[in-house]
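3.2 Worked example (two chains)
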Amino acid sequence: FPRLRLSSTLFRTGVLLLAMVACSQVWARDLAADFREPPASARPWVYWFFMDGNLSREGITADLEAISQAGIGGVILMEVDVGVPRGPVRFMSEPWRELFKHAVAEAERLGLQMTLNAGPGWTGSGGPWVKVEQSMQHLVASETQATGPRRFNGVLPQPKPRPPFFGPVPAELESARNEFYRDVAVLAFPTPATGPGIADLDDKALYVRAPYSSQPGVKPYMPAPADDPTSSGIVQNSIVDLSDRLDPNGVLTWDVPEGEWTILRFGRTTTGANTRPAPQPGLGFECDKFDPAALDAHFDAFIGTLLRDLGPRPNDRKAGWTMLHIDSWEMGSQNWSGKFREEFQRRRGYDPLGYLPVMTGRVVDSLGVSERFLWDLRQTAQELVIENHAQHLKALGRKHGFGLSIEPYDMNPCSDLSLGGVADVPMCEFWAKGYGFDSTFSCIEATSIAHTLGRPVIAAEAFTSDSGEAWKLYPGNMKRQADWAFCMGINRLVFHRYAHQPWLDRRPGMTMGPYGVHYERTQTWWPMIGAWHQYLTRCQAMLQRGQTVADICYLAPEGAPHVFR
């Protein structure tokens, strides 16, 4: 019997080895076939920009036919306003939506894939349909001093919204920004002697997250100082909650105990983040990234409207409108919303109310305790952005057969790796060498995401450039940087950019203002571009078939925000 069992084991092992050899031979044959005739799925893509109402039906057809004939596999579509004079087709009007339907139909006819940005402009998800109460919000506070013992009966100043990161909001949104306010809490505590404050409060409390790639000095993560157990501030147990003593007119009635007291009135207001650089008819607030209901409303008003226009499409479609996209996170951070307190309490296990003075730069109990509260705040914010915005958008899209691509970098209040991990297609960006910023860190991030989570496609917004490019780039001087991108692990180039050409008889035609390489059918070298795209497609086909083998695994630290480089 032992001999029979051994023979059986050897037989099964032999069969398994033969099967493995056969599979290896089939895989090798498939690889060779893909090299000779690369699949359409390996073709490069382009960003296809509609320039603020400058659209035409014949131009859309001509663009997509030229894109297909040149060996490009898909487009990421956005409509933007970067200073080009407005055209006649108003964004989201009935004529605009008819042209969008035509673009989808033409993409289907030509076998092209189309990805649509999650909102107008390139920043995120918002528009004129987003009500101010469903916009991104932050916590604000006003301060009043009182001396006891006496009865205090007076108006607490209503806290003002902080100035938006990118300066004044569009005039259409300014009145709503100033008018929206909701009370959160009123807290009082014995006024402490001057003590230590919180360094880098605006960053640590997520009032500000500046663009890492373009603004010098932005920290890749929030380093916590060494805890000083001797540091003291407000004693947490001495904080008095007076929220129920504030009337609707902002009048507080309170019998002040003996001594000097500080009263803080906390509220929430909009951050002012808006859809930039959206066409004027698409200007509006960015929706609340902590609230799935806010995203639901935005999705229905924008993507839902377009889906209803198009009518039913098979969820397993391989051409036409197949994906949604979150571009580089340029809407900044938020640190509050209507349900943030209860979400914080549920996730962190304690009520943040007694630590809200930390949000004004004050120390509660000790510097270490205050820093840990801010850590918890950032962790909660990250979880809400990922779960209630990115993952929720992915789930909404799945119901209609959409995949999701994400560029998770720049002003992201989360860990870039965590946000990008939600994507079906993680994306990065590299600027044309000598014509812009250094965002190569995002390429390391995207490839790391894909390699650890098993994403077969790693896309890059490729050859972004500033006005210095001035028609200087062409395939011959782009090849070296493209090869570098392949060595980084990128396996789908998405050229920035192809500006929609509404005319059939004008050259060089429409541009994207000062941005991007001029990668359109109106270029002098466009008729000769096929061989360049064939080379890229062959490289990408091989890279998309391969699996990464890495000698070193580096465990990224926890924390948010966090840029990995």
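3.2.1 Second chain
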Amino acid sequence: MTALLIIFAKEPRPGQVKTRLSPPLSPKEAAQLYHSFLLDILEEMARAPEMRLAMAFSPPGAQVIFRGLAPPGTDLFPQEGADLGERMSRAFAWGFAAGFGPVMLRGSDVPDLPAAVVLEAREVLAAGRTQVVLGPCPDGGYYLVGLNEPQPPLFQGPAWSSSTVLADTLRLARRLDLRVHLLPTWPDIDTYDNLRTFLQRAGPAPQPGWRSREKARRLLGRLSTNEP
């Protein structure tokens, strides 16, 4: 079977994305930066061989926007569910029902994640060495989850958008007797401090995240020149 990577993404609309970056960025600038995140993620993930790409987008009416962003051949479908866990579970169900496997899902807050990390997730799942793959974030969440088959209970307990998401998920996996493989820890970008750390590690083109790095430098440079 062909592996599938689903990218969870929001429409880059001012006031709806990267809100914790405002201030110092304006809502419009935060949305522009998030747009660069999406472009970097799609560019890097498209480099992964023998893997199908899909985007689960929000809100439901944003398909036209994402059709313009995504590479040709990318599957698009809206996120559905009452909370993040249900939306993720339904996205996995969509992927497995379409005949893909293994299926991986990643967020859009980590623009510099190398394709090699996703390939590691695919390989350990495809080899049957694990049933769940998780990519930890330093803030207690995770940037990627991968499965060999649907596991709805795995998404029915964590306190979403909290610092215990990863720990909650690992606890659920143990309760369900699922083997877990942890990927390298990778920082996401939610706050100004996260953004500053990102600028210290991200490199120029063609390194992953280069577009977001350049956009952030321009935006923050504009702020410094406008200071009294």
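3.3 Remarks
Helices lie at 27-45, 63-69, 84-97, 115-126, 165-175, 192-201, 210-226.
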